[in-house]
Amino acid sequence: MTIWRKGLQAATILLGCIVASTPLSAQQQKIVIGLDATYPPFASIDAAGKMVGFDIDVVDVICAELKAQCDLQNVPYDGIFAALEASKIDMIAGGINITDERKQKYLMPGPYIRGPLAFMVPVNSTIDGTPASLKGKTVGTVGGSVFEKYMRERVGSGTEVKTYDSMDAAVLDIEAGRVDAVLGEELQIIPAYIQAKPNTYKVAGNSISDPVYMGQGKGMVMRKSDTSLAESVNKAIDSMVTNGKLAEISTKWFGKAVPAR
Asked: Which locations, inside or outside the cell, does it occupy (predicted)?
């Protein structure tokens, strides 16, 4: 009986060592992903209360590639970076632009899509998107975004900038006549507002592809310490570019294959 007990103890210790030494990669990884679901067609809530959009589909494919269990959470944009820094989420998705400033603080795998900025105005507006046409006007945009940064650095002090928590809120004010134009992403503005309300809005002038603000495309965002996760996500994005999956998803949501790189 004593020999049997000793054998059982030895087997238990050996099993414990095997389990303890099993690498995390062999277990299903859980990733908590934050998205601001007020940004169609990148991310929004449908009539059934489900998150849908371009970024939702992209994240689903990434999670499948990583064989990870992903928990998608709707986090308002103004608190999403704080949530990442507090480890409440592991990754940010949802149309985040890669900038040199952000890359100093975060890892940003990608890009997985590129798109220019554009001013949206009422269909009868004479604004053409130039600083001269915007002088004395009020432009609404999302606070803390590259849109606001562009307005303050490129358009000049002669134009009032009004910031909002979401693009939807800015568009409500253009409808109410409280702002003269809104600045956002052409990929969002055209399907979500111009095509949704024909003969109501238009893009003012040429789209804006200033590389300081838009030239690096969109990426996921994660903490600097999460290098392994960033490498895995980057590989998944590379695979989606190569196999045409990104082109397929962008065609679904934007009506055309939008370049990623």
From this structure: Cell envelope
